[in-house]
């Protein structure tokens, strides 16, 4: 990941010594290895990082819910967890969720899910500053890094949509990690943990010293066991586990809220959601895929039709549309009291039926299938079902 010769990049690409060696071996170049960039993807993650499936990776290298923001693996940016529901099942070896069509945004990254930087989330770029930064005590620049935080300036209220992390200055001095808020520097515990600042409510969670200041961990008393397996924050020598994890070192998984009654807690501690629900705790209702195809918007399981979102469309009774339709006429006659989001102009509606609905119908019920089903069963049921799906 992030190497310029790979197909998938989440933040910025780097030219590593490996690529320089490849170019030199071609016989056309002489490489200056001192100019190579640092390739930090997977740094200090051990051999399991190479051999384990990516849903078992630790910390920012794996995320499983879109409800939480976080820091990228190198703490250089604030990030989000992109999880996509595809209209097809993913290859068997890239399935990390109970839903076979759910995974990360990039096929070149094997559909793995990890924190990806927001377009304006860079902590190291001073030009990425946001309006709320001052209220939250954040500063962006070359020596700033992403850290978990609930800080907010006294007299202000941290909004419910505000991320649980931010960009703060850091420095490594005399084998200690120091962080700054509003120009005030404080020393962090070697194992990491919360620090508070005058003029601010909340706290900033320092990373462990070795994350930002040295190549390897520094043994200290009170350091959390196994660094909480990167599934939680180390606070005063104790692990604060992320949702879905528990145990003194956050090594065990559990099903949050017992899957909210909408799924089964599997033996590995992951919720297997029943049809119609999704999320780490099966709390989010989903709509039938036809909702979006029909111009609807899914709001926690409820398909809402907002014709105002489509220029030239209005909400019309089925009975008013009959005269303008041919293929979909029979389907509308079954529900004359219903309403549909449709073009206001009859001519536009007729064109829509010709260029959109008919191709959909033939895709759902191709001519080969029509002949086969007619010979075996008669085609009336399948024909009607295909028209119903194509029309509405």
From TrEMBL:
InterPro entries the record matches: EGF, Peptidase_M8
Gene3D superfamilies according to UniProt: Laminin (2.10.25.10), Leishmanolysin , domain 2 (3.90.132.10), Leishmanolysin domain 3 (2.10.55.10), Leishmanolysin domain 4 (2.30.34.10)
List keywords of the entry alphabetically.
Disulfide bond, EGF-like domain, Hydrolase, Metal-binding, Metalloprotease, Protease, Zinc
The prosthetic group or cofactor this protein requires is: Zn(2+)
Q: Which domain of life is it from?
A: Eukaryota
Q: Which Pfam families match?
A: EGF_Teneurin, Peptidase_M8
Cysteines paired by S-S bonds: 255-265, 273-282
Tell me the GO BP annotations in alphabetical order: cell adhesion; proteolysis
Which residue ranges run through the membrane? none
**What would you give as a GO molecular function for this chain, any one?**
metalloendopeptidase activity
Residue span, EGF-like domain:
251-283
Cellular component GO terms, alphabetical: cytoplasm; membrane
Q: Which family does it belong to?
A: Belongs to the peptidase M8 family.
PANTHER family recorded: LEISHMANOLYSIN-LIKE PEPTIDASE
> What's the protein here called?
EGF-like domain-containing protein
Q: Which organism is it from?
A: Gossypium gossypioides
């Amino acid at each position: 990941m992030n190497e310029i010769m790979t197909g998938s990049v989440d933040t910025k690409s780097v030219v590593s010594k490996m690529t320089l060696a490849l170019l030199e071996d071609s016989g056309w170049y002489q490489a200056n290895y001192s100019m190579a960039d640092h390739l930090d993807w997977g740094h200090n993650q051990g051999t399991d990082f190479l051999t384990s499936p990516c849903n078992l990776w630790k910390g920012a290298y794996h995320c499983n819910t879109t409800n939480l923001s976080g820091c990228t693996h190198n703490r250089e940016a604030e990030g989000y967890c992109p999880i996509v529901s595809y209209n097809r099942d993913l290859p068997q070896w890239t399935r990390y969720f109970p839903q076979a069509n759910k995974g990360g945004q990039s096929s070149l990254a094997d559909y793995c899910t990890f924190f990806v930087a927001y377009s304006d989330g860079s902590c190291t770029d001073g030009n990425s500053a946001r309006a709320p930064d001052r209220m939250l005590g954040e500063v962006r620049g070359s020596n700033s890094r992403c850290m978990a935080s609930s800080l907010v300036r006294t007299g202000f209220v941290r909004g419910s949509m505000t991320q649980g992390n931010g960009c703060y200055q850091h420095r490594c001095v005399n084998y200690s990690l120091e962080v700054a808020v509003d120009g005030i520097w404080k020393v962090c515990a070697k194992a990491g943990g919360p620090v508070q600042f005058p003029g601010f409510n909340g706290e900033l969670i320092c990373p462990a010293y070795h994350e930002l200041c040295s190549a390897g961990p520094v043994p200290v008393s009170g350091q959390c066991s196994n660094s909480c397996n990167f599934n939680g924050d180390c606070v005063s020598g104790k692990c604060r586990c992320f949702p879905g994890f528990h145990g003194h070192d956050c090594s065990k998984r559990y099903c949050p809220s017992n899957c909210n009654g909408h799924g089964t807690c599997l033996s590995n501690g992951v919720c297997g959601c029943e049809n119609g629900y999704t999320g780490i705790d099966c709390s989010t209702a989903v709509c039938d895929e036809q909702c979006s195809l029909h111009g609807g918007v899914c709001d926690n399981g409820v398909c809402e039709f907002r014709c105002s979102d489509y220029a030239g469309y209005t909400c019309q009774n089925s009975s008013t549309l009959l005269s303008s339709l041919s293929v979909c006429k029979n389907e509308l006659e079954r529900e004359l009291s219903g309403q549909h989001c449709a073009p206001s102009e009859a001519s536009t509606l007729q064109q829509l039926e010709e260029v959109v609905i008919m191709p959909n119908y033939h895709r759902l019920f191709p001519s080969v299938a029509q002949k086969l089903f007619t010979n075996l069963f008669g085609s009336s049921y399948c024909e009607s079902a295909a028209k119903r799906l194509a029309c509405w």
